[in-house]
Amino acid sequence: MRGLGYQQYDAPILEEAELYIQKSGEELGNKQLYHFYDKGERHIALRPEMTPSLARMVAAKFGELKFPLKWFSIPNCFRYERPQKGRLREFWQLNVDVIGLPAGPIDLEFLYMITQLFAGFGAKPEQFQIKFNHRGVLDRWLQYQKLESYKSTIYAVLDDWYKTDEEVKTATLKEAGLSQSQITAVLKLNQDRTYQEIAYEFAELRLILVNLGTIFQDVQITFDPTIVRGLAYYTGLVFEAFDTNPNNSRALLGGGRYDDLLDLFGKQAPAIGLGWGDATMANFLDNWQLWPADLHSSAGVKVGLLPNSDQDLIKIYTEILPQLRANNQAFEIDYDYQRNLKKRYSSLKKRGCQEIIQF
Amino acid sequence: MRGLGYQQYDAPILEEAELYIQKSGEELGNKQLYHFYDKGERHIALRPEMTPSLARMVAAKFGELKFPLKWFSIPNCFRYERPQKGRLREFWQLNVDVIGLPAGPIDLEFLYMITQLFAGFGAKPEQFQIKFNHRGVLDRWLQYQKLESYKSTIYAVLDDWYKTDEEVKTATLKEAGLSQSQITAVLKLNQDRTYQEIAYEFAELRLILVNLGTIFQDVQITFDPTIVRGLAYYTGLVFEAFDTNPNNSRALLGGGRYDDLLDLFGKQAPAIGLGWGDATMANFLDNWQLWPADLHSSAGVKVGLLPNSDQDLIKIYTEILPQLRANNQAFEIDYDYQRNLKKRYSSLKKRGCQEIIQF
């Protein structure tokens, strides 16, 4: 992230529970919130997400900060729910936010940054896809179709778009009171020409749509009216990225523009951000064998050392280790002078020593 | 740590409170424990230290692990106490442990590793000092002096050795019932010849004492009978390291041998470990201006880009960024086409761009 011009920040794991109850919506802020009363009778929660802490901190130092902020963090977050594939009780999440730049070219830069992060893992264009949409377009289209009063039902149907078949969608929309022609309009949203026309009314979205092929080339990135990101606080561009391997169907990352981020704290600054969780990303790295090779091993060649006496040991510390350290080479010393040399040798080999020095 | 042959592990932030109430002693396991009952009525604590989690996990997988384990972790830990200089409610702590090697040359290697970690920060020998002692020596000496029954009082006096004057020490020891000659013996422990002689009875300690000058050269490392590390679980070598700047008097790190680490879980394996906290270390890095230069800045030269139109922007994304990314150079784009060019230029300069490309 530093190579993309971002600075790292951190925040406490514990916050007052109220921060999430007000801010994070029913699911995160209530059902899944890991909260309790501490020894001082304070109502405390383990953070279920990083954004409310970010908003609280930026609002508190609003006058002192140089905007725009381009910040990232890799916090662990907690959800009180049954663990399942791709969703764990404790997880780590890359958070990236730009605060203080209105909708515009930064929205395009954000999508570009995502492709660069995938490239950083060595991912190939056929292995992932990015889908984006725009809350403003969706809301104007609902208005145009006179469907504003059904907004929450339609958002819910779009949110589950690829998980439900047409029958279920139709039933849900019918139950909410939509007419047959309105239902048809929602079901055909993906091919709706008016929707595409409205999209071009938003300058930042037009910039992205017009230059998609030029800038992103072979990356699979598509404008998809069904991407809404739940009911939460987004105000403009929204996006998600997916593994193209169907065994890993949950979004790898999601985010968008949320210009009312700081409203709760009485401040105003436009913002765009994303969250990228570790659980689905770990599945992605498994699927395409993209784990960094040196993640669990030592730097460079690890040298094994087989002293047979304290005298050898002194030689190691005064002559050999200074050289190995100067080259930043890892080492491991077997201290078991009494044991069979062959066994000691093969034990060091098994522990990852590529070179072994004997005495 | 990887360069020193260690592997990284992680553990949960939450554990059952019982783990610490049993294991961590009065201060950590009771008064300072941040504990609560969760929604499932479980008695839970935020970890105040990493070692009990390590012991629990190693014991659980005891049969599958290849010993010796050489492991490290950098967890955040929590203490319910008033924040003060060098002690915060949430802090980060490097934990290093070797499990499965008995007292021997590994104890020397541990002290060597500490000097290497200081060297990694660019610290000079005059900026820090290491002090070590041995619980076995101390206990044998207490036996020799027939002072075993006063062990906890004497440990407490040694623990506060450099914080209290002779009068206070004398009063405490007198109150506990020591005779005048016994009090004198304790007060002169630092120069006690018998204590030095007992030290040579322990092979691993003898190895360290005999080779101190040869191996550690100009590092300030001294055998100091007053280092005890509280009443907690140590069984052999104990050590602490200090900033030589008197404004930062708390230990930077501490640790030692604790061969009964796994006893609580019904397993047996000798072990040696250390904890190195971030708060006093941050003071140390402040004192000697040793913060890594690139900690809060981007990698390499950061390039500022000043487009005046969407057309310039496309050029940036298709021609310039691919080159910058290939060189892993950080960039920042100013999107405010309308604003005065001079102001935009100086704003990018202020944001750390050493090179600026105009259109």
The CATH topology label of the largest domain in chain A is BirA Bifunctional Protein, domain 2
Number of helices of chain A: 13
Q: What quaternary form is this?
A: homodimer
| Main sheet overview of chain A | 9 strands, mixed
Folded structure, characterized:
The structure is a homodimer of 359-residue chains. The longest helix of chain A is centred in the last third of the chain and has 17 residues, at 310-326. Chain A is elongated. Helices cover 38% and strands 20% of the residues of chain A. The model of chain A has no long low-confidence stretch (mean pLDDT 92). In chain A, strands 1, 5, 6, 7, 8, 9, 10, 11 and 12 form a nine-stranded mixed beta sheet that branches. The first copy, chain A, has a three-stranded antiparallel beta sheet with strand order 2-4-3. Chain A has helices at 17-23, 25-31, 51-60, 105-120, 135-144, 151-159, 166-176, 180-187, 193-199, 203-216, 278-287, 310-326, 341-350; strands spanning 7-8, 14-16, 34-37, 43-46, 69-73, 76-78, 90-99, 128-134, 220-223, 237-243, 253-257, 271-277, 303-306, 331-333, 355-358. Chain A starts with 6 loop residues before the first strand and ends with a strand. Chain A is α/β, with parallel strands linked by helices and 359 residues long. Chains A and B meet through strand 1, strand 3, helix 4, helix 10 and helix 12 of A and strand 1, strand 3, helix 4, helix 10 and helix 12 of B.
